[in-house]
Amino acid sequence: MSIAGAQSPSPLADRPTGYGLVTRTLHWGMALLFAWQFAGAMLHALAERTPVERFVWATHYSVGVTLWALVLARGAWGLANLGSRPRHEGPPLLARAATLGHLALYALMVVVPTLAILRAAGNGRGFSVYGLQLVAPGGEPNAALVAPGNVLHGFLGWTLLVLVAGHVAVALWHARVRRDGTLRRMTHGPEESRLIG
Asked: Assuming Cys at both sites, which of 19, 48, 168, 182 could form a disulfide with 174, CB separation 3.0 to 4.6 Å?
């Protein structure tokens, strides 16, 4: 079969030379939602009961559930593309650190909202997302659902913020110091899609 007749790879899928459209859309969309969440958490801690805090904080549950659903979708998509994703750049120790850092990010992106969802479902006050009542108010609080969120949600949320800040710093280091194309694979996609398009 000639190259001209060969079917070009889907722009949706990841390839060793860069991330496809689905991964990039999930990554950057979630980055914006996390920025909103962390801004709301900081306002809640530092400027509670101000109009801007009330506006942003009112979305905290809904955006949190959205992020929880998106990270599950992103994890499933990542596993489906695992064999064709770009490898981490640099020496083996650096690549191992990148893998462990990404696993920690994914774990916290699942655990932090899960704790909040369980706490909201068990606190007896009810739970709604985008105005849709998922758990009706009333009933006795369930300590087994509420206690882990009370103890860990905030702490792990701030831990996630530190890891995200580290992730951004390392991505900029790859782009500005190593100049190895790591960040470009998440901003521009696979090399061959740019050549074909």
From this structure: 182
The tokens for 195 are: 């050549």
Residue 13 forms part of a structural domain: no
H or E, element range at 135: strand 132-135
The answer to whether residue 197 sits within a structural domain is no
**Short-list 154, 112, 148, 146, CA closest to 127:** 146
User: What is the SS3 assignment for 188?
Assistant: coil
Q: Quote the CA–CA distance of 7 and 172 in Å, as a whole number.
A: 35
- For the chain, how big is the Rg over CA atoms in Å? 20
pTM for this model (two decimals): 0.89
Cross-strand pairs, 15: 18
* Predicted pLDDT at 5: 44
pLDDT tens profile 42-93: 999 999 999 999 999 999 999 999 999 999 999 999 999 999 999 887 789 9
Which residues are 50's β-sheet partners?
none
Task: Give how many domains the chain has, as a whole number.
Answer: 1
Query: What token pair was written down for 145?
Result: 């659902």
Quick check: helix, strand or coil at residue 62?
helix
Between CA 191 and CA 197, with CA 195 as vertex, the angle to 5 degrees is 115
Which tokens belong to 5? 């007749």
Domain membership flag for residue 163: yes
pLDDT single digits (tens) 125-148: 988 999 999 889 988 999 999 999
